[in-house]
Amino acid sequence: MTRDEYISSAFQVIKNNERAAAGISAAQVGTLLVRSLNVHWTAFGYPALKWVLQELEAKKLVRLGPNPKGAFTVWLAEEAPTITTPTTTRPFLRKEVWNAFVSPRPLGRRFMERSQGIIRMGIDEAPTPPELWAEIKRVGDDLQKTWLREYLESRGLGENGNLREALGDPVWFYKVPLALRALNPDFVKDWNWRRSERVTQHVQSWCDAEGVPRSLTMATPDAPTTPVVATLPAAVAPTTAHRELVLAALARMSTDELLALPIPAKYLLATAPPR
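The chain above was modelled as a monomer; its predicted structure follows.
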């Protein structure tokens, strides 16, 4: 039996099973293949069953994904349901709160004002008075990678070579979704929802520990997120010190962040090189 013949035979075993239409767990498929074909997939160069199933999916013969109970399952391609992420109207994090807890930039410390939810990022010390500001600790890459590994294991993808390589890349947060999309675009949607859920739980735990009302961090579809901008009191006139603070903050911003700022055209024209 050749490798191609093994794949063809494996598909026939799955197709002829009475439970194929409803979906068969990957563990059950493994047992079926060994019993029916009397040969192990490792004899054809597959280090694990997952590699056999992924090749069948690449040939568009089967569809892989979690069943409603979360178990990694195999369906015939024409019977395979679309992976769906939970749809709820639960509140989600304000955009600026998400950035404060997740984004690696800007560098520096991050704080939230305890009564209004104002966010300050990229600073060295707490704003004054410091007792009104709670410091935010970013959700680090190590913790996010732990969540991602748990997700991959729950979907039977923990040993996928492409995903393991992408997870070790410095830009893993970009490479892993690409690798997931190559397997099944629905995996990306599913992971994004799960990650959002984990980050939200982390933020809510932080609120409870710091005595910050959870409501200050959340937004709902009927109350869209709008950044809260901290301004100087009306009685305080801008000074040279204020200008230096603004310039120092700009120096910390990335090019993309600077390009997103609404700069009056007259200043751009004044600084543009002559043609």
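Residues 188 and 263 are 36 Å apart (CA to CA).
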